[in-house]
Amino acid sequence: MALQALQITAITAMRARDVSRPSAEQQEAADRRPLRDETPRRDLKRPPHPQK
After folding, report:
1. CA 45 → CA 19, 23, 34, 39, distances in Å?
2. Which of 8, 23, 38, 40 is the right S-S partner for 34, CB 3.0 to 4.6 Å?
3. How far apart are CA 31 and CA 24, in angstroms?
4. The pTM is what?
């Protein structure tokens, strides 16, 4: 496997961390949005599965 030879250096790890960090604008938008468990659940009316 080619991935076995992959070595992650400290520089690579720091770059990945910086790239994955959201911008200030993205962070503010996320802070304004309610969390998943704070949003009311939508009860979807689904017909029951027919049993065989």
Report:
1. 41, 39, 24, 18
2. 38
3. 10
4. 0.37
Report DSSP state, residue 32.
H
Residue 25 has pLDDT above 90, yes or no: yes
Of 6, 30, 10, whose CA–CA distance to 18 is shortest? Answer: 10
The secondary element (H helix, E strand) that includes residue 27 is helix 24-32
- Per-residue pLDDT band for 46 (boundaries 50, 70, 90) equals low
Two structure tokens written together for 8: 């992650």
* Region class of 42: left (phi > 0), else alpha (psi between -120 and 50), else beta: beta
Per the CB < 8 A criterion, the answer to whether 22 and 30 are in contact is yes
